[in-house]
Amino acid sequence: MKRFFIAALTILATTGAFAQQIVADKVVAVVGNSAILYSEVVDFSKQVLQQRRERGYTSDRSAMSEALENLMLQKMLYNQALIDSVEINLDGVAENVDRQVDAMIADAGSIAELEAREGKPVFEIKSDLRTNAEEAQYAQMMRMTIMRKVTITPGEVEKYYNSLRTDMLPIVPEQYVYAQITKLPSSTTLAKQRTRERLLEMRERIVGGARFDMLARMYSQDPGSALQGGEMDFMAAESFEKPFGDALTKLQPGQVSGVVETVYGFHIIQLMEKKGNLYKSRHILLRPTFTDAELAEDITMLDSLATEIKEGRITFEAAAVKHSDDKYSKQNGGLVTNHEMLEMYGANDTSYSRTAFYKEELGRDYPYMRSLKPGELSTPFQSADMRGNTLTKLIKLIEIIPAHTAGLANDYLQIEEIALQDKQQREFDKWLNKKIATMYVKIDGSMDTSEFENKAWIK
Known about the structure:
47% helix; single chain; four-stranded antiparallel beta sheet; 3 domains; 459 residues; Chitinase A, domain 3; alpha+beta; 15 helices; Triger factor/SurA peptide-binding fold; 13 strands
């Protein structure tokens, strides 16, 4: 947990508010080709203290010592990232900095007041923030590159588990196993047609001169891009759902596609720029919407089905096979797994398959099952799938697994994850010590290094 806290602070060093430098500056450390100023350590130490307060984390360690060591780690990773030609999304960094500066201007009241507060022109504030943000992103990506190479075997997981004292074993929170019958609205075809027509109207407005980004901000239902006018970073066409990617490759810069349907809903897409096989685009996403009367039809249908199940005229499992629209669970008698999530993130390893879920993972379904006892049915309710599509559900609670100390037999995946993180950290520490030994490191004698966790920094 302590190492995680340090890693989080490494990133926070460049993403927090840009503090005024009110101390006399001097170089207090050099790592590779990068210098660290005293003012940077002071600013970062304030963030260390703030994070401790927010997390309820106390430490006898000096915040200045922690800040200096973490800044040195960031410089080390940054220098190695440049040597190894690690790539980051520079456009994404620039966009984040622009949003950060906009927020700073809003907080200050005006550009002039921000410049007065920071003691420098806004272009210099933005330039400094971008330099720092890029460095942090390079460092983070370098760290991930190192750790992704580390794998773990079942034998290593078992050895790790057996090495832990009983009081060190993780506690697995309460979990729920449940089955479901889901129904997509019977009026889905009509709702889809209404959605297509709305997007066609927007397309006509854009072709007629309306601004794509303004319409995206007003109407798009993609929370990840709507506030940015529908804009997305440079990505390969293969990174998108196939219909979206196929439509994108047929566009010329500035052109707007026809209506494109994906599992997320319906889109119109505008290609902004192309670099090789990378596309910068923006889109407007709309999902089919339904009237209260249309949604009530499925509530009524599932309510009747629940009565049949309770009266013993049909089992829940048979009803799921016959009536459910969820392809992931219907053939298992409605038993819910994480297969949809695995498919969504391209994880094809069946060893990660599970049927037990923490309440935080149940989202809007949890309130309808928290009062159920195993074997009981919920009332029918409106919900949504992982992609945001509207549907109606009937749930049967199968089992509540109480919170318990993790064991290999029932909680292997959780233990494997912890064991892998431990191995990744150990391998990273080995890598880091080798790099420190070969890279130029110089610390000013005025800085206290007695509380450094990694003594290899002190040469």
